[in-house]
């Protein structure tokens, strides 16, 4: 099976990754069925990458229907140690203007209808979500933003909370004001439980969030529509590709250690041998060492 070091999950408006060579599409078998779309594996500047369109190519899946567990399990099976998530978001703060980019360092999970763990059914673990974003992956995105800047007005905001709603409807005005009162920076519909599952899979995760609108709280701006959000996202799509490529280069050459890589060391309560056999099939791949991928790359 193709192996990858870095996974890129492309959100709204980002259905492929440019510049991949040695491309191979794979349908990974998972205990949770199919991924959102076949995973596109290939190399970017010699670094093995796996790209997954979160909503499928053609944007067929609403946020509640994205098979988050299948997606993360499949990426882990491919050997992925770092995930770059690319996402459209609404801005909840005046200074985060539409077209600006944000690298959140926190998430608030307001989703209600999603399977959000690999555990249960005879296997118990409690991973820490105190710092849900890998600081090193976030840093690689920030460095990539700086390295690809061409004097444009797009600003990067480092840090801030991404509040994840169930969707697919956008928020009511009352909700939007409420999220602002919580101090959240941006609102989206997909990064939870994705980030939780990445942590359970011991994958370092960070998001490049692209502000497309002011949601519906702003006194002088129109309430968001999907049409307007996607139009603004498309203005940033090329830049997002450049940032992702550069971050992949940094991560691929530096291969930093992340606390996420050992998240289960202090979290696993049930010994693997005590788990029911069908559960071991789910959990063992999350515990498997990823080092062989790195060794292969060095030769
Ligand atoms: C079309 S705007 C709303 C849509 O875009 C975001 O998705 P993603 O994070 O995959 O870019 C947002 O969460 C909604 O699903
Ligand atoms: N205002 C908004 N709310 C939720 N998800 C979004 N994605 C882009 N804009 C959004």
Automatic annotation (TrEMBL):
The keyword Phosphoprotein does not apply. Its EC number is 2.4.2.28. Catalyzes the reversible phosphorylation of S-methyl-5'-thioadenosine (MTA) to adenine and 5-methylthioribose-1-phosphate. Involved in the breakdown of MTA, a major by-product of polyamine biosynthesis. Responsible for the first step in the methionine salvage pathway after MTA has been generated from S-adenosylmethionine. Has broad substrate specificity with 6-aminopurine nucleosides as preferred substrates. The record marks 171, 226 as: Important for substrate specificity. Pathway: Amino-acid biosynthesis; L-methionine biosynthesis via salvage pathway; S-methyl-5-thio-alpha-D-ribose 1-phosphate from S-methyl-5'-thioadenosine (phosphorylase route): step 1/1. PROSITE patterns: PNP_MTAP_2. GO terms for cellular component: cytosol. Phosphate binds at residues 12, 54-55, 87-88, 190. One of its GO terms (molecular function) is S-methyl-5-thioadenosine phosphorylase activity. GO terms for biological process: L-methionine salvage from methylthioadenosine; purine ribonucleoside salvage. Residues 6-248 form the Nucleoside phosphorylase domain. Homohexamer. Dimer of a homotrimer. This is S-methyl-5'-thioadenosine phosphorylase. It catalyses: S-methyl-5'-thioadenosine + phosphate = 5-(methylsulfanyl)-alpha-D-ribose 1-phosphate + adenine. Keywords: Glycosyltransferase, Purine salvage, Transferase. NCBIfam families: MTAP. It comes from Microbulbifer okhotskensis.
């Amino acid at each position: 099976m193709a192996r990858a070091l870095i996974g890129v999950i492309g959100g709204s408006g980002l259905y492929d990754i440019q510049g991949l060579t040695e491309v191979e599409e794979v349908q990974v078998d998972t205990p949770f069925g199919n991924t959102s779309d076949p995973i596109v594996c290939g190399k970017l500047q010699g670094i093995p990458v796996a790209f997954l369109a979160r909503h499928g190519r053609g944007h067929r899946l609403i946020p509640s229907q994205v098979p988050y567990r299948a997606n993360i399990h499949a990426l882990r099976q491919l050997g992925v140690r770092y995930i770059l998530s690319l996402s459209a978001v609404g801005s909840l703060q005046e200074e985060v203007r539409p077209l600006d980019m944000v690298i959140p360092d926190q998430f608030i999970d307001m989703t209600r209808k999603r399977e959000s763990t690999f555990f249960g059914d005879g296997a118990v673990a409690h991973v820490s979500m105190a710092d849900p974003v890998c600081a090193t992956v976030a840093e690689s995105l920030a460095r990539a933003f700086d390295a690809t800047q061409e004097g444009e007005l797009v600003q990067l905001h480092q840090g801030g909370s991404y509040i994840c709603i169930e969707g697919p409807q956008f928020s009511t005005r009352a909700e939007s004001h409420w999220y602002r009162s919580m101090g959240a920076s941006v609102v989206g519909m997909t990064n939870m439980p994705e980030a939780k599952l990445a942590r359970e899979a011991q994958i370092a995760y960070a998001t490049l969030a692209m502000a497309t609108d002011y949601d519906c709280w702003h006194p002088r701006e129109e309430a968001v529509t999907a049409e307007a959000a996607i139009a603004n996202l498309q203005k940033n799509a090329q830049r997002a590709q450049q940032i992702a490529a550069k971050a992949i280069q940094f991560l691929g050459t530096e291969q930093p250690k992340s606390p996420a890589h050992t998240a289960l060391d202090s979290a696993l309560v049930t010994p693997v041998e005590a788990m029911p056999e069908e559960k071991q099939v789910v959990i063992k791949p999350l515990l498997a060492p990823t080092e062989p991928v790195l060794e292969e790359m060095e030769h």
